[in-house]
Each structure stands twice: as structure tokens, then as C-alpha cells.
Amino acid sequence: MQHRVVQCVGPSYYLTDRKTAVQRAVNLYMMSVEGLGEDTQVVLESAPGLEMQTDFGADWEIVGMHNMEGLLCIVVSDTTATEYPVLYVYDMITEEWVPPPGQEWGWPSFGTGTVDQKEFDAQFQGAIVMAHGQDQLAIVDGVNLWVYRRSTRLLERVTDPDYNSSESVSHLDGYFIFIDPSTEQWYISAIDNATDFDALDYSTADSQPDRLVTSETLHRSLYLFGVRTTEVWANTGAADFPFERVLGASIEVGCVGVRAKTRAASSIVFVGQSSTGGPYVYQLQGYQVRRISTQAVEQALQKSTLISDATMWTYQDAGGEFVALNAPGLTTTWVWDASTEQWHERGELDGNGDWEPLRVEYCEHIKGRQYAAGGRYLYRMSRIYSDLAGDPLVRERTWPHLVAPSLEAVRYTGLELRCTSGEESAGSDITLEISNDGGGVFGPPLSRSLGQTGARTQRIRWLALGTCPAGGSRVFRLRCSDAVPLTIQGAAINV
Questions:
Q1: Helices (DSSP H) in 85-218: which residue ranges?
Q2: Domain segments of the chain as ranges
Q3: Overall average pLDDT of the 363-384 stretch
């Protein structure tokens, strides 16, 4: 009998050809644990759960959320298109809804505040994108522009004839920056005023013949993302037009969509493509890009039914920073850990036991709290291990292949899992499923208890695990379906 440690802790690297790679970490991520006088240990830690805060109603959907320096701004739209969309503004500093007076409405975990249903004066023509300056929040829908003022607490639609619509908005040095749809042109507002425009305040990103898609600002630089190229501009303060292209800073990679980007790890992370192909996930490093997606992530992106609608958002957990990626057609949400630079997945199980993406499109970090939004609901990220439906957050770890030699079968006499489950684990179970065909078909779940209350570290054993035939490929899959903390430390098998 042989006793050997197996690769239990690891990232998601799940390829279409499951005979090549099948390992998954769903709602679990790799975390380095440092101990005094010890080597760094890598474990699988549970991802945070989602605690429901507000239900906006069956006919309403959150289509935008933005942190305006302590003001949590939420845009909701009527899915029946019988009522105009509404902007809600919540002051996280004073913890009251603004502006008063308005309808009294109780908001879980926020206390009771004053809600003012600030109606827009038209239905939206496209996706909502927002950016803010010191006093103003600019909201675009591809055609219209609205401005919310912090000082007056009023929402107005911009009627300046020199505003020429935009699907994107960003802010730098007091200027709001807009992109003329389906062109290489972009333009700016008057300084500190998103309601005032000059027909001459236009420029062209023409280092390459490339249609502009979106923009982002970082370290006082303006990044203009085209379909396959990106230009970098800076504010030089010139009297005729304040921005000037940074010479030698053209990047041969563009962005696939307006919201397929986010700021994380003091950089910009985005889904990009170039003249040679894609989509890939890139991280900006100065005026260069670094490809951070794995082949597994790229295979998933290639299956997207509409990659231009990909969305990215950033959140934090246990001191780490994470970039989440959704796109139509993906079966899970892919997440990049900026600390370990490893990928894992997040998702929910549907009624058939299949994974589907996390239904979150926005996340904002305000006053030590993180709020996520998806569909009709506003959530708070927490250590309550539940998913969007309020069901227990299922954690899954599928191990890499354990390949048997071609001329002999392998009998597995036991498996030992070392994990930490916390004091809330009494009555909770973890299950083991076994496949002998490389993860194609799994056998029935074998349940074991996570231990008693107060017993934090567990050694969980499964015995007599059968035989993998000659030439077979054994795969173990662990699942925890109870709303308890779970940290997987390692595992060993007896063969």
C-alpha cells in the first residue's frame, strides 16, 4: 500500500477536452497563509457569500451602480417599460437616503432613511455607464446624458446641442470624456460642468484606423480603447484643447466592450483583442499589456454568444483583490486573484445541478462595506455563506487527473482530507464523488460529517474507494452544500 499526498489545493483550469485538464475551484480560491517560522502554506478558502439587502420589486432591474465618493448611486429600470427609470442616492457617510423629502422606505442593514424616487425623463436607449467629478454624476445610455448634482440634489437631462451622444463616459482633471459612437472621435465637457459643451472640443484617436469602444482613466492618464488598439493621452493644459496623445504609447490591443474593463491592483484589467486574435484578459503595466488569462479562461470566452456584452467588476476579501468576469454564454463567473494571479470560478447551482454564472453585474466598496447588485436585488458581501437566492453557497473542488498505468488497475483503499470548518459546522456534511473516466460521469455522493461544534481542524476519511481500471483516469470531486465556513488544507490517498 502506498500513501501519497495529492494535489488537492489548486486553481480552476477546466478545458473542453476533459482528458487534458479537469480541475476546478468553484466558490473557493487559493490563499497563502503565512506562519511564524514556517513555510507559507497555500489553502483553498471559501469565497464570500451574499446577504440580500433590498428587493426593488418583480418589475424592476438594477442597470447601474456607482460610488460617488460616499454616495451610493443606484439606477433601476422598469422591465415592463411602463414607468420611467429611477435614480436612488444613499449617503453612506450620514447613512440616509437623499434628497429629502420623499417616500419613507425601510432598507435592511441601512436603517430607515428617506428615499426620493428621482425619475429620469425618458426610457433608456442602451446600457448605463456613469462617472463622477467633484459635484456632478454623469449618466449616459448611448444617446442621452443626465447629470445628478451633489450640491443641489437634482437630476437633469443635458440639452446642449453640442452634446453628441456617447456609450461611454469617464472623468479626468475636471473634464468629462465622451466617445462619439462608431467613430474614432471623442470629446470633452467644459471643466467641472458636464452640462456644457463646445463643438470645437473634439479630438481623434487616429494612430491606427480603429473605432473607439470605451475609455478609462488611471494615474492621471486617459486610455482610449479601440476595437484592436489603445491610445494614451495626457492633460497638457493647452488652451485650444487640453489633452495630447502620449508619443510612443500606442498599445496594439483593444477592448471588446464598454463594460469589459475594471480598475484593480493599481491598474486596468480588461477583456481585449488584437489584430492577431482574442479575446484574452489583459492587465495594463504602464504603456504595455500583460496577458493574464489562462487557456481555460480563453476557451470559456470563445464560447460567449456576445463577447461585446462582457462585464467586469472588482471586490475584496481577506485582504485580497479580485476581478470577476461575466459574459453571455459562460457557465460560471471567472475570477482572477490579483494576489496569487490564479483563477477560480464563482457560480450557483440550478435545479438540474449544473453551474450557472453569479448574477452580479456591479460591486462598490464604501465605508468598509461591499455592495453587489444583480437583477432586482442589492446585496452585501459577507461571511454569511449564501448565494443570490439565499440558498447555501455550494463550494466545489475537482482535483486533477490521477492516471493509472496502462497495464494495471489501481485500487484506492482510502482518502484523507484535512480541512478547517469553523465552530458552525455541527450537523454539516461534505461529499466526495468519484469518476473513473476523467470527470465524464461521477458516482453517487459519499457524505461525511464536518465534525462537531468547536472542532475546527478536521481529518475526514473515506475508505474502500474502489478500483480504477487499467488505462483509466480517476477524478475526485468534493462538494460542501451547507452554509458554513470551509478551508481545504490538503489531502492524501492510499493506493
A1: none
A2: 3-47+396-494, 49-390
A3: 89
Percent of the chain with pLDDT over 90: 65
Tell me the CATH number of domain 49-390, given options 2.130.10.10, 2.40.50.100, 3.50.50.60, 1.10.10.10: 2.130.10.10
Gap between the Cα atoms of 88 and 14, Å rounded: 41
CA distances from 234 to 199, 241, 355 (A): 21, 11, 44
- The string of pLDDT tens digits covering residues 119-138 is 899 999 999 999 999 999 99
Question: What is the C-alpha separation between 131 and 462, in angstroms, rounded?
Answer: 54
Q: How far is CA 25 from the centre of its chain?
A: 16
Long-range contacts of 101-108 (CB under 8 A, 24+ apart): 107/53, 107/54, 108/52, 108/53, 108/54
Q: Is 309 helix (H, G, I), strand (E, B) or coil?
A: helix
Most distant pair of Cα atoms in the chain: their distance: 81
Does the pLDDT of residue 100 top 50, yes or no?
Answer: no
Q: Between the CA atoms of 347, 27, 265 and 307, what dihedral angle is there, to the nearest 10 degrees? A: -20
Confidence band (pLDDT; 50, 70, 90) for 422? low
> Quick one: three-class SS letters along 284-303?
EECCEEEECCCHHHHHHHHC
Model pTM score: 0.92
> What is residue 437's DSSP assignment?
B
Tell me the C-alpha to C-alpha distance, in Å, between residue 178 and each of 123, 167, 224, 387: 20, 8, 10, 37
Q: What is the mean pLDDT of the chain?
A: 89
Average pLDDT for 365-385:
88
The answer to whether residue 60 scores a pLDDT higher than 90 is yes
Poorest-confidence range of 126-135, 208-217, 425-434? 425-434
- Tell me the CATH architecture of domain 3-47+396-494: Sandwich (2.60)
Radius of gyration of the chain (CA): 25
In 228-297, DSSP assigns E strands to 230-235, 243-245, 254-255, 261-264, 267-274, 277-285, 288-291
Q: How many CA atoms within 13 Å lie on the side-chain side of 69? A: 9
Nearest 5°: CA angle at 426, between 423 and 430? Answer: 105
Grid cell listed for 328: 453571455
Q: What are phi and psi of 228, to 5 degrees?
A: -130, 0
**412 and 467 in contact (C-beta within 8 Å)?**
yes
The H or E element that residue 398 is part of is strand 395-398
